[in-house]
Each structure stands twice: as structure tokens, then as C-alpha cells.
Design a protein that fits this description.
The chain is 60% helix and 0% strand. The protein is mostly helical. It has one domain. α1 packs across α2 (24-42) and α2 runs parallel beside α4. The longest helix is centred in the N-terminal third of the chain and has 19 residues, at 24-42. It is elongated, with a radius of gyration of 15 Å.
């Protein structure tokens, strides 16, 4: 049976082979980030931090559409965000570093051109 990660990698390979600009692989990343964004909006975190994290989430989606591969285990969902906030002492006490640590790094060579 194919795992989610194997399916994701296969879809990315198929996308590259077919030359598609959008595909199901990005849809999986977008789907995970939708729940993350909803939780972020309702989390009570500082609005500037939430806005900056939202911008980075948009960059992750854009990078995936350009063909950058991400391990699905590195893409956060609402449950991971809420666990970090809870374990960090709540929205007013959790450190920004713990929130940023949830998001995968986009390599410089794969960053969106300005």
C-alpha cells in the first residue's frame, strides 16, 4: 500500500513529467496549510506574528507549485500549531521561535524571484 509521502513524491514526479503548473501534490500541501491557517487566525497569537507566518505559508505553497519538494511531515497542521501554543504556555506566552520552528525552510535557490 502506498504511503502518503510516497503518493506525494509520485505525484510530484508525475507533475514534472507532464509539465503541469498545478497538481494534486500542491493540493495536499495547501490542504494541510488550510487547517494551520484557520487555527492561526483563531489562536490569539500576536497579529503581526500571525501575519508574518501566513506570508511564509503562502511562500511554501508557491515553492511547491514551482516544484520544490517538501516532506509532508514538515508541513504543519492545526493540531501541531495548537499543541505548540498549549505547550508554550498559551498564545501570550509562547515564543515566536517555537511557532516559526513549525514551518519548513525554503532553500534560497528555490525562493521566489523578487
Amino acid at each position: 500500500m502506498e504511503t502518503i509521502q510516497e503518493r506525494f513524491d509520485r505525484l510530484m514526479d508525475e507533475r514534472h513529467t507532464a509539465g503541469l503548473t498545478a497538481g494534486r501534490a500542491e493540493g495536499e500541501i495547501v490542504g494541510l496549510l488550510v487547517s494551520f491557517r484557520r487555527a492561526l487566525a483563531d489562536s490569539g497569537l500576536d497579529h503581526r506574528l500571525a501575519a508574518a507566518v501566513e506570508v511564509h505559508a503562502d511562500r511554501i505553497v508557491a515553492a511547491a507549485r514551482r516544484g520544490v519538494r517538501f516532506d509532508l511531515e514538515d508541513i504543519p497542521d492545526a493540531a501541531r500549531l495548537m499543541a505548540v501554543i498549549r505547550d508554550g504556555g498559551g498564545p501570550a506566552r509562547v515564543s515566536a521561535e517555537r511557532i516559526w520552528a513549525l514551518l519548513p525552510h525554503i532553500p534560497e535557490e528555490d525562493a521566489e524571484p523578487e
